[in-house]
Amino acid sequence: QVQLVESGGGSVQPGGSLILSCAVSGSIVKFIGMGWYRQAPGKQRDLVAGISSVGSTKYAEFVKGRFFISRDIAKNTVYLQMNGLKPEDTAVYYCNGDPARYGWGQGTQVTVSS
Questions:
Q1: pLDDT tens digits for 24-58?
Q2: Strand order in 77-82's β-sheet?
Q3: Count of helices and strands (H, E) across the chain
Q4: Dist. CA 95–CA 22, nearest whole Å
Q5: CA 113 from chain center: how many Å?
């Protein structure tokens, strides 16, 4: 059973940066697409960024040019570099396959406010 453990969230001011990490149990990062998702209170969970098995990336329009997804195959870890954070980026961030195929982890809270 694949387990996903997200970390790296926190509270930052607008314009700040954070790096999220997702530790994935099992050596699957090399073989499947992975994604970062977010869910704000009262809203649906949306895909923010994805990285394919061959390393190509894609981004939701609302984070293009600000967020960057990457992976470390040796560490079975997926990262999300978030720059230029805005209050509307406030949400719980999760990782999963892309498309999502595993049970959701606990997520990591990102709060952007002044």
A1: 998 889 999 999 999 999 999 999 999 999 999 99
A2: 4-7, 18-24, 77-82, 67-72
A3: 0, 10
A4: 6
A5: 19
